[in-house]
Amino acid sequence: MIEIHKQKQVKFKNSVYFSPWRDDEEPMIIYNTTINIQKDAHDEWLNWMKNVYLQEAMNTGFFVENKICKVLIDEEQGITYSVQLSCKTMDDYQAFKQQHAPRMQQLASKYANKLVAFSTLLQEV
Q1: pLDDT digits (tens, 9 = 90+) for 14-67
Q2: Which Pfam families is this protein grouped with (predicted)?
Q3: How large is the angle between the packed helices 90-99 and 101-108, nearest 10 degrees?
Q4: Do residues 83 and 63 touch, judged by C-beta distance below 8 A?
């Protein structure tokens, strides 16, 4: 027996991609932080990001997914990443920001002298 799931079709220049469609949900909100970490702190920071920071963020209960992406540019000053935390609604993001952001910023201050970062708020389309 073959199960057929509802999907949305996304067209790119020369191809078509199908992904699961979520009828009951609004587009996800993505809290994206772009970070350039100095090379001498990179390995320790990446391990800490994966095993401490993102775990703490997920444990708040406001995020449903996280992702770390390496930015594919060659920089002498360091290595650049996009760290993404996805939540279901803007209300979830606002609640996280109000209840947990100061603690998360203090946690991240461990590497304050080793990185440059900026954050953007994105909406899935």
Answers
A1: 565 555 555 566 899 999 999 999 999 999 999 999 999 999 999 999 999 999
A2: DUF4286
A3: 60
A4: no
Q: May I ask the CATH architecture of the domain 24-123?
A: 2-Layer Sandwich (3.30)
Give CA 111 to chain center in angstroms: 18
Three-state secondary structure call for residue 115: strand
- Write out 36-79 in H/E/C secondary structure: EECHHHHHHHHHHHHHHHHHHHHHCCCCCEEEEEECCCCCCCCE
CB 101 within 8 A of CB 109: no
pTM for the predicted model, two decimal places: 0.77
